[in-house]
């Protein structure tokens, strides 16, 4: 009996160490120490055996309650999106048998605090778990479930997508290991609760919408993340999330985030949708002009079809839509009207795709867009050998020939004919009069010289995160800053090399790639806007003439913008929001 007593006393001592002071275990153990007679030992052994079983049950019940408490506290934040930006808390109360549990999640400063208290109504015992998660970066943490050895890195007020924060909290009788993982538009909180004195372990996982209130900067990402496109992916995801939040807060729900049409990257489209898109472009070439009058036709001899009206409009307005206040808004509406014509006049049921040229920046020839099959955007041009370097005086650049130089030879545009231009090509093949009829094949000369310098993920990320003012943003995009003669916009036009339709400043819409290129430019502007929508969506700067030459007045959002043969004039302020005015679209 002495041996059994020792074992039970040892067990009780272990339970005493694991259980809060002042409970039944401590009291019973004190009685045991005072006992001396064998009869008392027998009596107490029976009592203790019963109490041990009861205490085990209580311990496991309390552990279950703590586990459920963790689950509840992690599933609470349905309103977390609003809470994180303004502070506040959200709570829930639940009952599990005799255990009454209350949980609260709070957003305080730059921390997310989660607390749960479980109270057993039978004996009044209470156990509280609490954890605080700073919005800190832990990029080097590996995604090992249950890991608890990654310290928080202090001093940051923003939590980046795909960061993983891990922390252990609590003490005997339970240890709770919690992790926050940010991925895309959601925050996932994982908790594992393990009692010290039992093999019982419970894991819970919950996901809620994540809201990042800060504006990320270049210093938030490593060079490797920027160069690989991971940083741009995260920034784009953050902007999309903020667009969704902004759309949900609008009084006018004519266009909602969910009802908006979605523009995707060309390669994300099915083969059938790609072919439907290129077929619709060919259809526009078969349609007669829609807005040019008979009396105007003598001034525009090169306008032979509906697509030519788009080209002529761009030619006509070149010096009023580049390096101007309305550069971005004008081109937004221009490609939107093109998209509408594809749908309304040619039966296209999809949306305008964009070309993420940063994916191809180091190897344009290997891009699926130019493989020349019937589901592509057409091939490169036929290779033309023995060509020399080309000098561009304005940019003071001497560049090598590309990998084509001749007519597009396969794919949907192998028999494509353009009717106007070039106007301002460095290759001495310009027309004598601006709108002369000059039928020619579609020429391409894919050239990594430009893409690898001006259209990389580094270029895009630097642009969006490095420029906070609209003036600098649109100037750097167009390449009018001293250290960047092309920008992502100008670089994108020269991806087609030279000579090509795409490189001509005036008549570049001759190549259908123009519209995919400018859809990507519009996407970049949209990302930039929604990173700080309150301050950026209505931001404009500049006049209505290229580089203010000749001098003209500063533009305002109430100005009327001309669209020539493309559409009726539009009010500037109606063209700045992709979810309002004539628009209801977003990018994936």
Automatic annotation (TrEMBL):
The keyword Zinc does not apply. One of its GO terms (molecular function) is metal ion binding. The lineage of its organism: Eukaryota, Fungi, Dikarya, Ascomycota, Pezizomycotina. It comes from Oleoguttula mirabilis. It comes from the Eukaryota. This is Tyrosinase copper-binding domain-containing protein. Keywords: Metal-binding, Oxidoreductase, Signal. Residues 1-18 form the signal peptide. It holds the Pfam family Tyrosinase. Residues 511-522 form the Tyrosinase copper-binding domain.
């Amino acid at each position: 009996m002495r041996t059994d007593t020792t074992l039970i006393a040892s067990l009780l001592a272990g339970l005493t160490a694991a259980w809060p002071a002042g409970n039944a275990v401590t009291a019973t153990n004190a009685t045991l120490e005072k006992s001396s007679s064998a009869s008392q030992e027998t009596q107490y052994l029976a009592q203790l055996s019963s109490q041990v079983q009861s205490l085990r049950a209580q311990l496991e019940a309390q552990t279950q309650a703590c586990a459920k408490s963790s689950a509840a506290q992690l599933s609470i934040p349905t309103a977390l999106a609003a809470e994180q930006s303004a502070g506040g808390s959200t709570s829930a109360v639940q009952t599990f048998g005799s255990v009454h549990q209350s949980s609260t999640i709070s957003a305080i400063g730059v921390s997310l605090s989660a607390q749960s208290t479980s109270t057993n109504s039978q004996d009044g015992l209470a156990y509280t778990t609490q954890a605080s998660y700073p919005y800190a970066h832990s990029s080097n943490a590996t995604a090992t479930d249950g890991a608890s050895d990654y310290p928080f890195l202090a001093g940051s007020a923003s939590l980046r997508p795909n960061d993983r924060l891990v922390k252990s909290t609590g003490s005997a009788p339970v240890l709770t290991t919690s992790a926050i993982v940010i991925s895309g538009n959601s925050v996932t909180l994982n908790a594992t609760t393990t009692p010290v004195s039992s093999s019982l372990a419970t894991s819970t996982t919950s996901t809620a919408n994540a809201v990042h209130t800060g504006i990320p900067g270049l210093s938030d990402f490593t060079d490797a993340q920027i160069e690989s496109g991971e940083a741009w992916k995260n920034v784009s995801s953050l902007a999309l999330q903020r667009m969704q939040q902004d759309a949900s807060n609008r009084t006018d729900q004519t266009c909602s985030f969910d009802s908006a049409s979605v523009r995707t990257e060309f390669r994300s489209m099915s083969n059938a949708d790609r072919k439907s898109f290129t077929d619709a472009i060919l259809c526009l070439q078969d349609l007669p002009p829609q807005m040019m009058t008979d009396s105007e036709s003598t001034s525009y001899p090169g306008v032979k079809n509906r697509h030519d009206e788009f080209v002529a409009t761009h030619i006509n307005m070149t010096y009023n839509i580049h390096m101007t206040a309305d550069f971005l808004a004008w081109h937004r509406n221009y490609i939107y009207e093109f998209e509408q014509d594809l749908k309304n006049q040619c039966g296209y049921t999809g949306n305008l795709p964009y070309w993420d040229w940063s994916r191809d920046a180091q190897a344009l020839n290997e891009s699926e867009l130019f493989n020349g099959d019937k589901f592509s955007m057409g091939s490169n041009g036929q290779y033309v050998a023995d060509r020399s370097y080309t000098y561009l005086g304005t940019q003071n650049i001497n560049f090598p020939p590309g990998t084509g130089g001749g007519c597009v030879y396969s794919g949907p545009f192998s028999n494509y004919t353009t009717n106007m231009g070039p106007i301002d090509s460095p290759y001495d093949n310009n027309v004598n009069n601006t709108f002369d009829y000059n039928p020619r094949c579609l020429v391409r000369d894919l050239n990594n010289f430009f893409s690898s310098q001006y259209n990389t993920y580094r270029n895009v990320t630097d642009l969006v995160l490095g420029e906070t003012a609209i003036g600098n943003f649109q100037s750097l995009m167009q390449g009018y800053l001293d250290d960047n003669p092309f920008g992502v916009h100008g670089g994108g036009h020269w991806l087609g090399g030279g000579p090509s339709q795409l490189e001509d400043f005036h008549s570049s819409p001759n190549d259908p790639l123009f519209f995919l290129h400018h859809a990507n430019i519009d996407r970049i502007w949209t990302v930039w806007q929604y990173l700080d929508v309150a301050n950026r969506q209505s931001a404009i700067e500049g006049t209505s003439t290229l580089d203010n030459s000749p001098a003209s007045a500063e533009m305002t959002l109430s100005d009327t913008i001309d669209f020539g043969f493309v559409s009726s004039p539009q009010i500037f302020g109606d063209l700045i929001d992709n979810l309002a005015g004539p628009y209801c679209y977003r990018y994936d």
